[in-house]
Every structure is written in structure tokens, then in C-alpha cells.
Design a protein that fits this description.
With about 150 residues, the protein is of the alpha+beta class. The protein has a domain at about 15-100: Dodecin subunit-like (2-Layer Sandwich). About 30% of the residues lie in helices and about 25% in strands. The chain is built from four helices and five strands. The chain has helices at about 30-55, 65-70, 95-100, 135-140; strands spanning about 15-25, 70-80, 85-95, 120, 125-130. The strands form two sheets. The chain has a three-stranded antiparallel sheet with strand order 1-3-2. A two-stranded antiparallel ribbon has the order 4-5. Strand 4 and strand 5 form a beta hairpin.
């Protein structure tokens, strides 16, 4: 949960493939049913978009296979009604599982992990802190596992 005054939500650093900007507009018997159907559609559209981005033809996969490959759904914008779900979503696909199906090697050379902690020294006391800034928001959206 983002605290408006300080700190940031943890970023995904798993190295997942991310597809964003997937538009869905679904009607269901209930709001939950419509949302669930919208997420299913986003997974299918996301898989096709990922395959295209990787220069592959999208292999039709079952919803169960997609469930096993999807590591997260990112809600960019959503509107939920009593029986309708309109949203712009992102889908995170497991690099290992999606890469295996697309024929992409899961291993990649990466730099050594690095930890950066901002320190403020005031009155002779060093304190680690984070203030919410535009730079931090951009860093949070950046998938560090892909660097």
C-alpha cells in the first residue's frame, strides 16, 4: 500500500514479461463475475500481444495454462458496475514459463544486485528515509528484474 507521505509499494523484481494497456469491457451476472471474465480476456489478449512482441505467432493456450504462466495482473484503470467491468489492465507473465513456450532462453546475463539507501545526516544523526517523488514513482514502475 502506498503511503501518501513516505515509502513505496514493493516493485516486481522477478523479471516477468509485462504487457500493459490491455482494454477490456465485459458484462457478467455480477460485478465479480464480470471482473473475473475481464481478467481472463486480458490474459488471452496479453499472451497474443507478448507473442507478437517476441516475433512469434500466438499459440492458443487454455485458461488453465495461462493461469499457470501469469504471475500478476496490474490494474491501470478500472470501473466496476453491478454487472459490468471496464478496465485497462497489464499482465505479468513468468519469464521462465512464457519463455519456454515462446522458445526464448530464460537465462540472461545480469549485473550484480545493488542496494541504494538514501541517508540524511542531521544534527550528527544519520537516518535512512524515503520521500515520495516522481523519480521514485518511475523507479517503482521500472521492472528491476529486467535490467
Amino acid at each position: 500500500v502506498d503511503d501518501p507521505d513516505q515509502g513505496l509499494a514493493a516493485a516486481d523484481s522477478s523479471g516477468s514479461y509485462e504487457v500493459s494497456g490491455i482494454a477490456v469491457d465485459v458484462v457478467g451476472k455480477t460485478a465479480d463475475a464480470a471482473r473475473y471474465a475481464g481478467w481472463r480476456i486480458a490474459q488471452r489478449k496479453g499472451w497474443a500481444m507478448l507473442a507478437q512482441r517476441m516475433g512469434q505467432s500466438a499459440t492458443a493456450l487454455s485458461d488453465g495454462a495461462l493461469d499457470g504462466m501469469v504471475s500478476g495482473i496490474v490494474v491501470e484503470d478500472e470501473q466496476i458496475g453491478p454487472n459490468r467491468y471496464v478496465a485497462r489492465l497489464g499482465v505479468l507473465f513468468s519469464r521462465a514459463k512464457a519463455g519456454a513456450i515462446l522458445g526464448i532462453a530464460p537465462e540472461a546475463a545480469r549485473s550484480a544486485p545493488m542496494l541504494t539507501i538514501p541517508i540524511e545526516i542531521s544534527g550528527g544523526v544519520a537516518t535512512g528515509f524515503e520521500q515520495k517523488t516522481a523519480w521514485q514513482d518511475a523507479w517503482r514502475r521500472y521492472r528491476t528484474g529486467n535490467s
